[in-house]
Amino acid sequence: MIEFNLTQIEKKWQKAWKDNNLFKAKKDTNMKKFYALEMFPYPSGKLHMGHVRNFSITDAVARYKRMTGYNVLYPIGYDALGLPAENAAIKNDSDPKSWTLKCIEMMKAQQESMGFSYDMSTLTPTCMPEYYRWNQWIFLKLFEKGIAYKKVAPINWCPDCKTVLANEQVEDGKCWRCKSEVIKKDLSQWFFKITEYADELLKDLSKLEDWPEKVKTMQKNWIGKSEGTEIYFKVKDMDLEISTFTTRPDTIFGITYLVFAPEHQIVKQLIKGTKDEKEINKFIKEVAKKSTIERTAEGKEKNGIFTGQYFINPVNGDECPIYIADYAIMDYGTGAVMAVPAHDKRDFAFAKKYKLPVKVVIQPKDNKLDVKTLKDAYTDSGVLVNSAEFDGTNNEVAKDKITKWLEKNKLGKSTVNYKLRDWLISRQRYWGTPIPIIYCDDCGIVPADENDLPIVLPDGAKFDGKGNPLEKIESFINCKCPICGKPAKRETDTMDTFVDSSWYFLRYTDNKNDKLPFGDNHKYWMQVDQYIGGVEHAILHLLYARFFTKALRDIGLTDIDEPFKRLFTQGMVLKDGVKMSKSIGNVVDPGIIINKYGADTARLFILFAALPEKELEWSDKGVEASYRFLKKVYKLVDDNKIKATKIDVDTLDAKSKYVLSLIHSTINSVTENIDNFRFSFAIADIMALTVEVQKLALKADKNYKIVVAEGIDTIIKLLAPFTPHIAEEMWSMVGGKGFVSEWPVGNEDYIDKKAILMETFVKDTASDVRQIVQLIGKTPESINIYVAPEWKHKIYELAKGKPKSLIAEVMKDTEMKEIGAEASKYAQSLMKRPVFLDVLSSDDEYLALASGLDVFIDEFDCEINVIRADESESDKSKRAEPGKPGIEVL
RNA sequence: GCAGGGGUCGCCAAGCCUGGUCAACGGCGCUGGGCUUAGGACCCAGUCUUAUAGAAGUUCGGGGGUUCGAAUCCCCUCCCCUGCACCA
Hints:
The chain has 890 residues and is α+β, with helices and mostly antiparallel strands. Strand 24 (530-534), helix 16 (540-554) and strand 25 form a beta-alpha-beta unit. Helix 1 (6-19) crosses helix 23 (724-733), helix 2 crosses helix 18 (599-608) and helix 17 packs across helix 18. Strands 8, 9, 10, 11, 12, 13 and 16 form a seven-stranded mixed sheet that branches. The protein is built from 31 helices and 31 strands. The protein binds one RNA strand of 88 nucleotides through helix 7, strand 9, strand 13, helix 11 and helix 19.
């Protein structure tokens, strides 16, 4: 057995690719382009299997597209700013920059060892001023436009660490690092006005035809558009108006109380001076203490308290109590909810708990609701009752009618509400893009001068985990006001790292530009033709990136309004049925796999073991199978170092004709499968072809060699997108010039259905013969094969495309529909043999078998006699008897 | 609760859109054999049940329907995963 050192081969070709600068995107904008992009990784320093899968898929696409003549841009980059680096710095008493850069080097080395075909010239980590200065530049433009703005907002604040925490960093209401209780705090924060784009972001989802439905749905839900009505209520005996939002204005006559979110500003005025003020404030404090997660986790139990105040329902003059309840949230709608217990499940539950009245205003068509027996809210449609002039109206119609009535009487208006909220980009952290804003005592909030960019993160920060290090660096904070020139203070908040990833794909098209974030070059490259990454980014990153593209369009930088033409979300990598994770301890280190089996093996396994969008179950056995396959191909090429030449089909015999057919039909199927992201099918096809070519290669005849060469040539090319290193190596072994660069095209003239038919005959017979030979354990001297005319059913290949019409004919002839079940059986019996046999003349069939038999002569080196069973009466006795496979070995 | 995706012959996993080449691709595993001192590797065959068989039977979560014919279409139902979740 031949030994081959895959790791050595891989190193050799990685160097060759690098030396030849093979993957640099070309400047020629006349070429058809393809922009392949993977979601750039956070530089943790180590690749995990998820990365390897992501990149292997993208690389296969990029390589395939290059081979089919596209000018491909396949960039590399790192999402290099962010918390982990800062935490590492705190832990190791170092600084985030050197830690990050070190990690990038390690990660890049691993990516190189996988042989991904990046255009290395695009590499710009987002932590470099050359990149983040453009974050600042864009911020200034967005500030000018009013898209970036500052407002006071409640955030999670850790009093010990003196910093904001992301929701994910709050565990059970406590800081994940120091375990002290996190408090809600109002802080002045920077936002991007993504809500202004809510409608467009929603509408344009329909443009994204090649996005997974799942992702589009998730975004749609996240934006959460809901059309409804804003209704105003007057507080009894007070000069206060309450605004509420509802999608059910049709139930307005059924209101029996109203709830406020505890944080609602009006609440203070409402309870001021009332006898229960203290108690109510206590309740509010308790709710505020709970984290959002805690508050919503229970799900069922609703808590509230009566304010002592009443409001007036304008449609009927009812006076109803005003409550404060934890199930009302400040972030949605107006923070106040009109409660209709009879027709809303939450209101119903709350009303039952606090013994509030329930009033039915919608009756279903079939049965009548009775307040006394009502077990839960009725939320379906029906006809209005107890609703004055609207009685008898269908509730869907009433929604509109009542809203119009409210509008006419200035008691409300139709409105649209979104769940989407503005994007809070302020971070009280060091390792992010400094927000280019200056605070001047005289001029107020002043944007930094564009010419002063970049505002660079200062060195010498101390990372002690207490607050934002930037706040302690005087040289950074102190500056001059760009307007009046007086001493002023710099903003110390930095930007959320999602800002970096919201437009990096644009920077890649023009990453050396020092005048603008990107230039005209992007017009040629954008949109990203294929974006590939994990589904975990379905909302945040992908929504931000879409928003950013639109915002950049509105500040005149581009005409594009959707960045990613096709999105592909790959499945997770599992081990033992669960996600690979450190805590479970089932992580497989890609580095170890690469060292042991080589990058090509890892890539092949990952692409072969599951369809890319499905979950991938890691299997060591599977990896070994992939390795064996590569070894097998390598041996095949090593044994047959011949160059492909032109083929004259007429000179070929049946066997080689068959293999030639298979070669070209495989080219077609592999091409189709890659186009449809079915890499595992494509690879299975290549494997099947390899087996056939290998068998043919065992023959000594020159005739075969031509086809074997063609097969090898094809296999190398087809494998190149998946296992590029070994493909290059084999390409050079057969004397190929340069690098594997051309995708093969299936030649229809070579695809010979008859040849395939012959093969199926031979294959069937061969398996029988082989078995007998193996049973005997010795090479036979002579083999007799008796062929019954109806012998083989496997002539479907030739009948391809015909069965349906044939069946139709049969059905017509026998008027099957009327005969019923009997006919069904009849049709089936017809379909199984006679019908298809008619497609072929029996001579063809016979010839097919006969001409395929040279295989045996070669394989067993014995005499073969083919006896056609129907040649004469006497031969019928020699027809295959039960127990014999129609073959006699002498 | 809402939304999305699934349940296929030991395991992984195709097929379903466009119903009949489906007992159902491929990989793994297992069994037998060839080759070998042996093992590994490699090669061949088998791997739902019955059967001498190229035959038949019973299968694609469960139930029902449409059809001459259903893994595939329709309805109901059970189970699993994923996302969002007291969104008014």
